[in-house]
TrEMBL record:
Function as written in the Swiss-Prot or TrEMBL entry: Central component of the receptor complex responsible for the recognition and translocation of cytosolically synthesized mitochondrial preproteins. Together with TOM22 functions as the transit peptide receptor at the surface of the mitochondrion outer membrane and facilitates the movement of preproteins into the translocation pore.
Name of the protein in question: Mitochondrial import receptor subunit TOM20
Listed GO CC annotations: mitochondrial outer membrane translocase complex
Source taxon at top rank: Eukaryota
Organism: Micromonas pusilla
Length: 231
């Protein structure tokens, strides 16, 4: 419905992964967590090839179906290692939070790990994990409203949420909120190129969303036609 994101996330996931990559082209400069930031993405050709052009990644209905059906055990080795890394980061942050519930940096690390893990999920599970990440960033900002890395992370999470809505107006609400977060982050640290790039990226989000929905509609039509032929 209008108030729940679409669960057709295979292309949406690729799209918001690309948006996150645009916002953070150099992961080693990620403000989320120095340990998280040192993940080396250079040895992940599958991921790199998805984002090698300026166009939106387009998956065929067959390829998309394979991705939808992919289980954790079928993930490529480097993706499995990446998922395990962020799962460990999540557990570590959760433990640190239990010891010190008012530490905004711990909450930001926790949310960052959840947001990364959401990329390995499908449908409602991905949606719920992004929402949980948002709650951690918001909690961090309640403790420290000027925490620029938490603002940047929240902007990324809101952008991801926007792409999961089919309706342009609903998605636009999230993109606008994300833009506000990126602007606030940049206000706190005006020389941060990542924040500048993220702010520029949000202006492209509505067009990217429209193209994504067109592709999803085409994909659905192809699947419906294939079912009709088989039927």
């Amino acid at each position: 419905g209008a108030h729940r994101p679409s669960t057709r996330t295979s292309l949406a996931r690729l799209a918001f992964e690309r948006v996150l990559d645009l916002a953070n082209e150099n992961p080693r400069r990620s403000p989320v967590d120095p340990q998280i930031a040192t993940v080396d993405r250079s040895d992940q050709p599958a991921r790199a090839s998805r984002h090698s052009s300026n166009s939106i990644p387009i998956a065929s209905s067959e390829g998309s179906s394979r991705e939808e059906a992919m289980t954790t055990m079928e993930l490529p080795k480097e993706e499995m290692e990446r998922m395990m890394f962020f799962e460990e980061a999540r557990i570590r942050a959760e433990g640190d939070h239990a010891k010190d519930p008012t530490n905004a940096q711990t909450l930001t690390r926790w949310g960052g790990a959840l947001l990364e893990l959401a990329h390995f999920k499908q449908g409602p599970e991905a949606v719920d994990m992004i929402e949980l990440a948002v709650s951690k960033f918001q909690a961090a900002l309640l403790i420290n409203p000027k925490k620029h890395d938490a603002l940047w992370c929240l902007g990324n999470a809101l952008t991801s949420q926007g792409f999961l809505f089919q309706e342009a107006d609903r998605a636009g609400e999230y993109f606008d909120q994300a833009k506000s977060c990126f602007q606030r982050a940049l206000d706190e640290e005006p020389t941060n190129d990542i924040y500048k790039k993220a702010l520029e990226m949000t202006d492209k989000a509505p067009g990217l969303h429209a193209e994504l929905q067109r592709q999803l509609a085409e994909q659905q039509a192809q699947q419906d036609a294939a079912r009709g032929v088989r039927g």
